[in-house]
């Protein structure tokens, strides 16, 4: 994997994580690095699920794949917020 691939994966993970965070209602007291980590994991897992379902290779944007990734990110954010409770995670 090249440096460009890593940077683009981080940017896509940040976007997917942010979209997943927007879907979850209420205030999420988690740091941005954790949102990005959840987003990267959701993007990777969503791609695997989309490929297994046969919906990853379409003409144009893969809206179904993006939808799967955002739903997985929302689930990840909700789980982390549920585990940490109201106190959140330290930002350091």
UniProtKB/TrEMBL annotation:
The chain crosses the membrane at residues 6-24, 31-54, 66-85. It comes from the Bacteria. Its main location: membrane. It is a multi-pass membrane protein. The keyword Lipid biosynthesis does not apply. Belongs to the UPF0410 family. This is GlsB/YeaQ/YmgE family stress response membrane protein. The lineage of its organism: Bacteria, Bacillati, Actinomycetota, Actinomycetes, Micromonosporales.
